[in-house]
Hints:
signal, secreted, cell wall
Amino acid sequence: MGIYIPTTMADHWLKLLICVIALSSTKVNVRASEMVNITLLSNAVEKGAVCLDGSPAGYHYAKGYGDGANSWMIYLPGGGWCGRKQSCIDRVKYSPMLSSTKNITQENFGAILSPNKTSNPDFYNWNRVFIRYCDGSSFMGDVKKVDPETNLHKRGSRIFTSVIDELLSKGLKDAKNVMLTGNSAGGLATILNCDRFRALVPNANMVKCVSDSGFFIHAKNLPNAAGRERTFSRVVHFHGISKFLPKSCTSRMKPGLCFFPENLVAHIKTPLFLLNSDFDKFQVINLLIYFHFLDKLHLTPYSFTIWYSTPSNMDLVI
Ligand SMILES: *[C@@H]1O[C@H](CO)[C@@H](O)[C@H](O)[C@H]1NC(C)=O
Ligand SMILES: *[C@@H]1O[C@H](CO)[C@@H](O)[C@H](O)[C@H]1NC(C)=O
Ligand SMILES: *[C@@H]1O[C@H](CO)[C@@H](O)[C@H](O)[C@H]1NC(C)=O
């Protein structure tokens, strides 16, 4: 004989309570990613902290909480460079996401910026900032004059400084732990801006720079070293970057060569971590092989094509 348990109102309430607890516990910190609105830098145009097309610099900011409230991660995305008038004009025309904030509303925060505690246990509740890359110089250029004919603005360095300055007033000045990180051209920006960034957050106990796939090699013994040197020299000259490169490097070699991490990392004082595949797809295809053949065929690419690193080729640290 079975036992008959009557369904009472109390059972219903108990089930409902269990459901509510289950739902509310899944609501906390388990999102895979989140859409974060853009914040345009205040007084960006007056400050001259503007994108290639003259639109205001911008960033996406997710506020930290809990034990992450005083920790900050600043992320610099990738997107190649433009180092000549025509390639910068083309960038404005064909890659508005990398040259303007006019059409940008939100950014999807995933991976190291993810709010998911399970997949991103170290940083999910930090203050997380994604600075828009819209200058084409790895956040390094600053030329005051705007060419009236093209209306191109070259202000990457000013964007970086002005955004950090605004973040200082939003709590970054009281941060304990700070990490500057970035991928590809943003990974290079991380290396190039690392010590300058450290100086902007003097009160932080711990500041570290983590460059993902930003170690672009000159490697003078590999094919097409001259092509790689020319690429970076153009970026350095076009965006007026020489004055921001360490004197310890520019006193020894041409400024264009001081854009290559291999000539810089020994001079960086802030802790710097490099994450780079030996077989970085972008470098192998674009900088070792692609330009080699374009040079042979006397062709010029109008812009770079970017392949983002996948986790499978990010596991080698050099
Ligand atoms: C959070 O990350 C874990 C591990 O990657 C994953 O299993 C889970 O589905 C993610 N949560 C959401 C809401 O996507
Ligand atoms: C993000 O922007 C959208 C559209 O402007 C707005 O509806 C929404 O409230 C904003 N979200 C936050 C968190 O500010
Ligand atoms: C802005 O976005 C709209 C709609 O997605 C698109 O049609 C337009 O071409 C974009 N403009 C620029 C300058 O990117």
